Amino acid sequence: MGYTVNEYVSDLRRLRSEGLVDNAMAEAVKPLAKKLAEDGSWLTEKMSSINSDMGVGISVLHEEHDQSLNVIVVAWGEKDLHVPPHDHGTWAVVAGVRGIERNTLWDRQDDGSHEDPDYAEVAAVSHTDISLGDVISMETRHIHTVDNIGEGISLSLHTYGQNPNTTERFQYDTKTNRKKVLKVNFG
Ligand SMILES: [Fe+2]
């Protein structure tokens, strides 16, 4: 049987109404996001179109009125995007749909005690390659980068507890070792 976006959203609402938050919510969402990605009947060609300025394409499948339960499809172009390491300020689940995306996780290396409150040293610590059938979750302050390492445009299904452009979230500059507020819809 198929699994529709509407059924997925109903399941997200049900899990949330059961009181699941943060990482517990993300863990519960993972198998459902994988199921929706694998169903793929919701996929349209338009979702593969790339915004030439950003090098990515974003299609919104769902968002509640309060901008929670944000479900989007992200298309990554072939070129090297160099999106800086960032967090989302909310839980996130990413399921592969097409192509191969390398999801690299970064960790804070400093203890946050520097006199400059925006000082932040980060280093890449691990990566997971995501294709159709793979799904990962990230916690509110998990820092990541994404690279399209396959052929052609890649697609992935992203679900966030809250639209990341309405959360307090940060990007990390690895040259200056400083963090700053991020307000770009890269997902
Ligand atoms: Fe992200």
Structural class: alpha+beta
Number of strands: 10
H/I helix tally: 2
Total domains: 1
- Overall mean pLDDT: 93
Determine the strand fraction and express it as a percent band: 35-45%
Any idea of the CATH topology?
A: Jelly Rolls
Radius of gyration based on Cα positions: 16 Å
CATH class: Mainly Beta
Main sheet: strand order = 1-2-8-3-6
Q: What ligands does this structure carry?
A: fe (ii) ion
N to C succession of SSEs: HHEEEEEEEEEE
Poorly predicted residue ranges:
none
Q: Which homologous superfamily in CATH is the superfamily?
A: Jelly Rolls
Shape: globular
N-to-C CA distance: 29 Å
Largest sheet: 5 strands, antiparallel
Report the CATH architecture.
Answer: Sandwich
Helicity, in percent? 10-25%
